[in-house]
Amino acid sequence: MAxxxxxxxxxxxHAGQRAAAAAAAPLSSEAQQVAQWISSSKDNQxxxxxxxxxxxxxxxxxxxxxxxQASSAVLLGLARGDHSVPGIGERPMxxxxxxxxxxxxxxxxxxxxxxxxxxxxxWIDYDAAVSLHRVRTANAADRxxxxxxxxxxxxxxxSYGCVNVPQHFYDRNVAPVWGKKPGVIYVLPETQTAASFFxxxxxxxx
Length: 206
Fold this sequence. Notes:
18% of the residues lie in helices and 23% in strands. The chain has helices at residues 15-20, 29-41, 144-149, 167-174, 194-198; strands at 49-53, 58-62, 68-73, 76-77, 106-109, 111-114, 120-125, 130-134, 157-159, 163-165, 184-187. The protein has a 5-stranded mixed sheet with strand order 3-2-1-11-5, sandwiched between helices. Residues 7-22 have low confidence and may be disordered.
């Protein structure tokens, strides 16, 4: 059932999505701290990496040398929290309560994959059924395109836990690299500081 949370209709692109997938944008102060730690500690181990800043609802793309390539707004899990419910990847979507729909924080080695419809996705945490993929628009009531295009991060919580990005951004900045080989995805916490969560060179707190 690990694929279940990543099913959906084919994505639809328009100008609003492309605006959301802007060129590299300034990082929040906490994202800057994490990026500096990765650079100094070489924690990415020579792999390209992504920073998912949940508080800012942004993703930042870095190459293996730590150079910022691009940034975009993202959609995240409906519920705030930094850990997945144990066994959630084995449950059908209908059995997942709203408060359980979290995007887990952590350091993940990603894997390219596909959902049952054959659409390419990037697994963040396969066991928890959390992936990064193109935004889904099957349910118009979710207003996912509008949420991505809005100026605030307050309305970017809507998914079951997966990280949604604009189609154009995924095709241009994610698929050519993470869609072909492993990389590292750092999802920043929102219930504690990134420094305490990741340890910044010491034993990780989680």
